[in-house]
Amino acid sequence: MIKNYFNYKVKIKDTPFKTDSGKVYENTAAVSLLDENKKEISYFELGFLYKEEIYHLIEQEKPVNLDDCYIENFSLTEYRESRNIERKSHVKIHNFSAYHTFFDSRIETDFSFVEFDDEYKNFENAHFLNGSVSFQSAKFHQGGVNFSYSYFNDGNIDFSNANFGNGELNFKNSWFGTGHKNFQDALFGEGDVLFVNTEFNKGDVTFVNTVFKSKRVSFKVASFLEGKVGFHFARFHCKELIFERTEFGDGKVDFRTTEFADAKVSFNRAVFGNGDKSFEASQHKAGKLTFRKTIWGNGNVSFEQVEFNNSILFLDNADFGKGNLSFSKSHIKELSLKSCHLDYYVDLRLSKCNSIDLSDTVARDIIDIKPYDFTVEIETINFTGMRLIGRIYVDWVINNVKNLIYSQQNKSKREFAEQFRILKENFSTTGQYADEDKAYVEFKRNELKADLKDAVKENPFSRIWKLPSYVFQWLVFDKIGLYATNPLRVLTSMLFGYVFFSLIYVVMPFFIDAKIVSSIGDPDKLGSVAVAFYHSAITFLTIGYGDYYPSGVFRWLSGLEGFVGLFLMSYFTVAFVRKILR
Questions:
Q1: Which of 55, 71, 264, 555 counts the most CB atoms within 10 A of its CB?
Q2: Thinking of the domain 487-581, which architecture would CATH place it in?
Q3: 516-525, pLDDT tens digit by residue?
Q4: Which stretch of DSSP H or E encloses residue 395?
């Protein structure tokens, strides 16, 4: 296919032309392709047929073979008018072939309302040199249609309402000029639909309300330049849909309310330009939709209200450029944003989702998970390895954050600890100090368990001293005061400790030679229980009046109680001041 020419000229000669297949035309068309300076860059000859000769073949229901031919101003609308046929009546063409055929028209090459009745229609390497091209409401029936390596110079192409039958439709390596490529309301049958390496160039490309029933639809390595690409209301009732390494230019890409049925959908390594991308309210019954290593360009990306209830959506390693990303009110079984760069606002307020993977992401702006005017039901979110430069808006209670983390499968205590640490720092940034404390406690708990497990794994004998250390830290740091995050918990622990020591002073004298002695003769005549509780109080609070003192083993026990009391009072002070200062 020659497509780097700027202009062309055609001269009709009265000499016969014989094709490589042996077909003879009465006239020859000498075609010269010119560059910008009107210099000839290519010259070749074709057979030439007047359009009336073609009309006569159609009227006589004879085979129409236009291979290696030059055709001027072909128009089925003109054909119908000249034969008094109703304007929208279909015109049957038999055994059609236009291999390496050059169509030229001042206004439009018109195949509108054509009906091909043979099994295979061939436009391979066909060139539409000038004027728009119309296949509006065309019927291709069974067999296949081959437009591979075809060249549409004008770019205004109309395949609206076309029925491509059940054979393969092949637009591989085709080239479209600037203009509107219209496939609206077209019906693609059961054969493969191939737009592989097709260059759509500038102008809108419309597949609105099209139906694909084939097993495989491929736009792999296709190229769209400036203009809107619309698949609004399209229905892909196919097994495989491929947009791998497809380049979308600057302009809106519209897949709103598209039905993907249960197709295996792949946009891997696709490149989107600067414009909004919308998959809003699209549907997928079950399976996978993959957008791995996709470059989304600048502009908002919307997956709002999608119905992927039984589908997994992979957006791993994607670069979302400058623009917001939204999954608001969507239903997705599993959503993976692993290793993505999220530089702008991300709305993860999904109505229903089993799991979201945010591992290894870099988030520089807001990630919004906190419900506002509708319920958000997310079972699991993986924050492992996240680089959080921005903020996550999430509520510990409403979003059930604890369950979001612990519901993850096959995660180590170290990974749990890391995720709670990320959330702890996030809650501190957003001023959610109560939630920060809860995240901090879970972080320390998992870190403690992870340290024990790692130490024992490295040296099994270390269990002998590591386990007592673990129990001590678990009791003192966690159970007594929740890592200094709960003053009331520390106060309760103090009360429990005070009562515990008091009861020991009451009970132990019945079993050992130890007692609490009055240094002033007990003027208040206190009973043994009152004395025990009084002595415990002045010892625990380190008051030390000296009116009662311990004897025997109680001397050592009172020293221990004094240390515990001093420690817990300090612990309470730290926890209380921490709350007040924030």
A1: 71
A2: Orthogonal Bundle (1.10)
A3: 887 777 666 6
A4: none
